[in-house]
Amino acid sequence: MSNAQQFDTRPAGEHASEIAVESPLAYSMHRSGAPKVKADTRVTLRERAFLGHLTLRGGAIVLDEALRDVLGMSLPGEPLGLVQASFDGPAGECSIQWLSPDEWLLIVPGGEEFDVERRLREALGDAHFAISNVSGGQTLLELKGEAAREVLMKSVAYDVHPRHFPVGKAVTTVFAKASVILRRPSEERWELVVRRSFADYTYRWLLDAGEEFGIGVER
Amino acid sequence: MSQPNRLKTGGRVDRSRQLTFTFNGQRYQGHPGDTLASALLANGVDIVNRSFKYSRPRGIVAAGAEEPNGIVQLGSSEAGQVPNVRATQQALYQNLSARSTNGWPNVQRDLMGLVGKLGGQFMPPGFYYKTFMAPASMWLTYEKYIRKAAGLGRSPTENDADIYDHRHQHCDVLVVGAGPAGLSAALAAGRAGARVILVDEQEEMGGSLLSSRESIDDAPATTWAEKVLKELSALEDVTLMPRTTANGYHDHNFVTLHERCTEHLADIAPHVGGRRQVRSRMHRVRAGQVVLASGAHERPLVYAGNDVPGNMLAGAVSTYIRRYGVVPGNRLVLATSNDDGYRAALDWSEAGREVVAIADARQNPDGELVEQARAKGIRVIAGSAVIEARGDKRVAVAKVAKIDIEGFKVSGPVEELACDTIASSGGFSPVVHLASHTGSRPTWNEELLGFVPSPVKGMTPTGGAHGVYALGKVIADGFKAGSAAGEACGFERQDASLPKVDERREGAAVALYQVPHQKATLRGPKQFVDMQNDVTAAAIELATREGFESIEHVKRYTALGFGTDQGKLGNINGMAIAARCLGRTIPEVGTTVFRPNYTPVSFGAIVGRHCGELFDPERYTAMHQWHVENGAEFEDVGQWKRPWYFPQKRRAENGERLETMHEAVARECSAVREKVGILDASTLGKIDIQGPDAREFLGRVYTNKWAKLAPGRVRYGLMCKDDGMVFDDGTTSCLGENHFLMTTSTGGAATVLEWLEIWHQTEWPELDVYFNSVTDHWATMTVTGPEARKLMAELTDIDLDKDSFKFMDWHEGNVAGVPARVFRISFTGELAYEINVQANYAMHVWKKLFAHGDKYGLTPYGTETMHVLRAEKGFIIAGQDTDGSVTPEDLGMHWAIGYDKPNSWIGKRALTRPDTKRTDRKQMVGLKPKDPSVVLEEGAQVVFDPNHAIPMPMKGHVTSSYYSPTLQSGFALAVVKGGHQKMGETVYLPMVDGQVHEAEIVSPIFLDPKGERQNV
Amino acid sequence: MFYIFCPYCGEHREEEEFHPKGQAHISRPADPEATSDEEWGDYLFFRDNPRGVHHELWVHAVGCRKFFNITRHTVSYEILEVYKMGEQPSITAEHYAAQQGAASADKERNASQAKHQEGVRA
Ligand SMILES: [Zn+2]
To answer: CATH number of B518-599: 3.10.50.30, 3.40.50.150, 1.10.150.120, 1.10.10.1100?
Structure first.
């Protein structure tokens, strides 16, 4: 075993549901509000809060094997790859993306991260690897709509043209004056994985940049 | 409405609609399709400005970006003011309001004209410096008036009402310029399937085709342009961007574009659908290939009085007639050195106005256009030039004479021709500005009589931009360039199916950069080379006589090609004149580099939306909203907003007032020392370290030992660079045998992670260890003070007994129902618990602590109190008490150095260098001011002898200084030379105001030196 | 603004994603304690500053966080190659000089063919 200390950061027990939980955008929604989606809205924004985010480090071969054992999915075969799979039935989905030659981001349904980490650790046994739970440290934002790409062009220097950014690609890049992980899980949907402390800046930036397209926030 | 110079038909303006505008307060009419310049010319406005230096009346000269005189201040409201707008590039819109940039009190009657006259016949370069510099102190007085009079445009004094934007673009082929070459290049690349961006600075794409006399496929040239544009707009990956100037060309094919989105519509961008629209936009383009189709600028001829309103470029005259339906005068004299100039005379004559004569500098002009002019009965005077224009506020007479170019003299009698307009053409200069932004100096081409771009990787010049001028050849050249650019990006080569353009027989041009006058240049009437900067041929000659031989020096001495002008009209003539005076060739005097931006860009576009609240990211912790609601004042720590202090309301004479910072900090400090305080410490960097070699790695990057740190324990560590200097510190906890959690300073989070990575990746890749940032995952709250245990006991299931949960232990459990790791570490010197919970639950825990903490006097404190408390304990802040020149020993932290560790940890070797072993190094000490009410200034210099003559030997400086409510005294940390051996000695701190503070060197630990309070 | 090919991500990225980390191939002495003060000083403080070909260490900071090397021309800013940690450059100053020597001979030949015409000196 890896001799690492695993720690479930989610409250458990009968009173767990009474504990208030605040997503990284809680303050932003409170302060900046959330413009409604209107008929002429050309881009929408949605936070998918409280998902389970795990950083996986290690060799591709062992991690791939463990991932297949535990979740029935493989690592992306190429750099900048994003693979999605269903998680225990159609309700849940999970995804794994390449971050670096020895680093991947696994996103699982909220609440599953502790168990997934435990099972991965078991499957990995004595291999050299690391898993860090970063679920509280980042959040997932979704951008959809015909103007989503234009909003991104205002925000990232990275080329988001479909020829260069096909479905199934994911990159870490500079976003305005912060950084994000930018992913394209489907034709019409973009995802931004944003660090908690930069979430408010990113949110305000998106509202400002999306103003001319009548950006709306789905809650 | 009277637009005396507007033709009944022709041009691309919409005569069915009228637009009203004002210029210098006077109302005029124009039409959609006009520029401000064409509308002014249509209305017969001769004077648009006063010149920069001599305050001479000036009129419009050109029809594009190269216009030197028609530079205006735009805007009818204060917030909408835009300086330095070229009238030739500004589309006319309803209620446009513009004023001359120069001219005080106004352009017609100008006070500063007097200065020009006082300056005498000739105001030499350096005039202002030479005349007004003595006494030097008076320059400030003069300058104010000179600048006011000269006028350089002015910024609005109110906030800009508009919004601006950036957009990042990527393409295979960027085509700059949508004239015949650019259109054809875009077509070739677009057809091949490349992602193409075609930009053009004008309102309408087409460039010279929009005013061309020539036919393409037996139809007007504009028909071809329309056809090509139609095909291009149908291609999905071709982006057409009119009103967009490529302003800067940077490394690796990075080009900045300035798109004027609404500047043709109104002063302030109109709202659409109730939403603000972007006024202008900066595009940052990364192009695979750049096709430079920026065309060429016509060179004016340099003759005496060539700046009197009514002197224009020949090509501009054609453009005004053919594109805008405006004939800018009644009687034309054309001066030319080439065939192209003849187009102006032909157009003028076809517009029904009189061409008085053509003065052609060539001995035997014989091209096709020359024949056409002769056929119209226009008088052509061969071997001659306009040597002087006469007129006060408008040209009245052209003096024409035979000239000897080689001998640089007038060789025949002078004939005076009455006229109101003189058009001149001295040939063309390829627009090489962009290419030269990359640092590549243009190359002189003797055949073309012009500079052409030198090779730039990934850039292809085409058409006029590299001296191909004949329309048919331009189209073919553009196509070839576009196809090659596409090919370089991996697309198939395109076979040209070129349109039919009749080839025109053209006579050779002659090089004529300065027209001789009967009088020598220095004594004759002014011949202007650069009208925007008021640089004359005489000024250049004088500069060469005063010893300026390099063209770069001549430029700086005379201001040739300065500022927003960037030498568009004058540079080549200026260089040629310098070459003549120096007896050298043009390439011998060198070429000059043009700099970005090509034309002025508004600050708004440069800033984009990076302004106001989006100027820089503000990073918030999970408890930020609570801090805001509880009245925190915030301090910027890097990009973080951290609570600085929490001022409370106090009773005052007239009701209530807020505490001062001093009062708040004193209250917060006492709460921590006497009861319990709480700090949001979430901003500390946190790095999760896992792997069998994690412990070994820590031993190499920290100065102290890690081999025996057991799970459940925490240790403070110092990090040095390999030069032995401290660069960060923090605690690291052992979570599991192969698992550690490192904390860094708030500012050091990213740097330390990169530091660990560089050592791992470049020096010790064999160590099995991974580092992951978990800074944002955890929220950290420090509960500290004598009552901390009682408060914690109410909320946690962790056993808080001092023997089972010792100082420098960490335990896990629940706090307020949330799983937490709690660390018994102390940055205050008091009993302290650092609670770490997943950030999403942090607000809950924080609020629960307050719900239970009231009875213990729980007090939130900010960074200022944190600083006072830690400094009282002598705890350093890396980056404040250290500056990259302080060793662990200098800090007196010998206990944190493991010299006997088995590895050569980072910094160890350097600590044995003679310099780091010196005993007179600046060492960390405490300073206690003799007067307890004094709070020394941070940064104040320490001296040993206050009576020493100035400059006094400086022996150290204050790094941290505060008032301590606990000590009831000011106190400071300082680094002092040999300080560790000077305990009890008195040092002095001379201040700017002459005061000298006295202080005693003491231990930097002011409170509880044995550390008993934190260990309870 | 450079456009830098990251050998790990396998594509070009904007300069703002990278941090330069100084001269490449500076390796820490294997046994620092065995070095003289002068040798140690050389390792710590002395770096090349060539006009021309230079090997530099960069990190894809906002990206894969991996370090790699760049061979860059310090005058033209052209990036001649990138290579991973542990690899050696294929383009060196000597190699480059030899290449350029051949090219500049061509250029001189072309320049000598420049034509002269009426009014060269204005
Ligand atoms: Zn990379």
So the answer is: 1.10.10.1100
pLDDT for res B2: 82
What is the mean predicted confidence (pLDDT) over C78-89? 96
What average pLDDT is seen over chain B? 93
The pair phi, psi for residue B285, each rounded to 5°, is -105, 130
More confident residue, A181 or B600: A181
Q: Indicate whether this complex's ipTM tops 0.95.
A: yes
How far is Cα of residue C49 from the mean position of the Cα atoms in its chain? 10
Q: Residues of chain B with pLDDT > 90: what percent?
A: 87
Judge: A130–B277 Cβ closer than 8 Å, yes or no: no
Q: Give the DSSP letter of residue B608.
A: T
C-alpha to C-alpha distance for A47 and A32, rounded to whole angstroms: 15
Query: What are the residue ranges spanned by the domains of chain B?
Result: 1-160, 164-296+430-488, 300-426, 518-599, 917-1016
- Tell me the residues of A at the C interface, defined by beta carbons under 8 Å apart: 78-80, 99-101, 103, 157-158, 171-174, 179
CB contact under 8 A, C13 and A99: no
The architecture (CATH level 2) of B1-160 comes to Roll (3.10)
The predicted-structure confidence for B805-837, as pLDDT tens digits, reads as follows 999 999 999 999 999 999 999 999 999 999 999
**Domain spans of chain A, in order of start:** 22-218
Instruction: Quick: pLDDT tens for B433-454.
Output: 999 998 888 999 989 999 999 9
CB-based contacts of B750, cutoff 8 Å, min separation 6: B685
Helices and strands counted in chain C (H then E): 2, 6
pTM of the complete model: 0.93
Centre of ligand 1 to C-alpha C17, Å, is 9
Stretch B990-1010: mean pLDDT, rounded? Answer: 96
C14, C17, C65 member nearest A100 (Cβ): C65
Q: Which of A100, A157, A179 sits opposite C66 (nearest CB)?
A: A100
- Residues whose CB falls within 8 Å of the CB of residue B791, separated by 6 or more in sequence, listed in order: B676, B783, B849, B852, B853, B856, B858
| CB contacts, 8 Å: A77 with chain C | none
Task: Report DSSP letters for B743-762, one per residue.
Answer: EE-TTTHHHHHHHHHHHHHH
Contact partners, residue A96, CB within 8 Å, separation at least 6:
A56, A67, A73, A75, A76, A82, A83, A85, A104, A105, A106, A107
Q: Which fold has domain A22-218?
A: Gyrase A; domain 2 (3.30.1360)
Query: What is the predicted pLDDT for the residue at B590?
Result: 78
Q: What confidence tens digit (pLDDT) does each residue in B861-890 have? A: 999 999 999 999 999 999 999 999 999 999
Please indicate whether, in this complex, the C-beta atoms of A79 and C10 are within 8 angstroms of each other.
yes
B757 contacts C85? CB cut-off 8 A: no
Looking at the partner chain, which of A79, A174, A179 has a beta carbon nearest the beta carbon of C9? A79
